[in-house]
Amino acid sequence: MDNQSKNCTYCHSPFVGCRSTRKYCSDRCKQAAFYSRAAQSTGSCNGITPLDSNERTAEEYNNIKDTVPLGFPTDKTDIVRPLPLYEEQPNDKMTFDVKKGDGQSDRGRRSESNHGYGAPALYGRKTKPVKEEQYRWVRSDFIDDIGDYTNTNDMASHMFQYPNKYWYSSDIEKVKWVSIRFRCIIENLLRLDRTIVERKTLITLREAINAMVASRNFKSIPANYPMKNEVVEWQKNIARAAKNADREVRFKLRTENKVKLICLRFQLADIVPFIKFSNLDFTK
Known about the structure:
This protein has 284 residues and is mostly helical. The chain is built from ten helices and six strands; from the N terminus they run E-E-H-H-H-E-E-H-H-H-E-H-H-H-E-H. It has helices at 27-42, 58-61, 64-67, 141-152, 154-161, 169-192, 199-214, 216-219, 228-244, 255-268, and strands at 5-7, 14-16, 97-99, 105-107, 195-198, 248-251. It is rod-shaped. Mean pLDDT is 76; it is low at 44-55, 64-89 and 91-122. Residues 92-123 are annotated as: Disordered.
């Protein structure tokens, strides 16, 4: 501790120093000296020409409050606060976008300072509302065809949903055996549509459906089984495609055939699940 008397570096008034390194008698002089040095380096300080601290006298010290920029204390006991960078101008009708750190937009929120978002809020910029176009419903003829085919063949769906009303328990087992294999073939035909298919793949499907048709379960299936004719029809279609195919062929279903297959798959899903081709035996 050093209690010897010193002169203030800024106002030259005597004071008792608590530390040997203390240069100013008060915080006011300390901050005024800072702004004076800043003004000398830039040429002005808020439009006020600073005075050289060596030319300042004790009498001029009492008039410092007239030369210190707005926001500085005029009494030694005042607490020095930094000047605000801008003044808040509240306007509840104005909105703007403030970018957060995560890149999201916080609309309609005003920041009270420039801390936290990196820059002060810009007042007076209004966000124009985005006018959304009304959605135009596009009707698909393909989906309409699927719905029409399903409605005209709704009897098959009803039979598969309530098999006990149409078949005995022993017949239901045969119906499920044929249905689960026919659905597997349908799923593979839809999967191969619009792709390059090797001829041996078509031959494998042809042999599988031929074995299913030649099986005892298919031959003894109830006469009212709703998809018996469809099985025979697709047996011929697959045989024709395998016969006309070269080593590789671009397999493409006609629109009407694709509509039928999608509807048949939808109806078969009411009675049997989908099982992979490799997990089924088409000969028993």
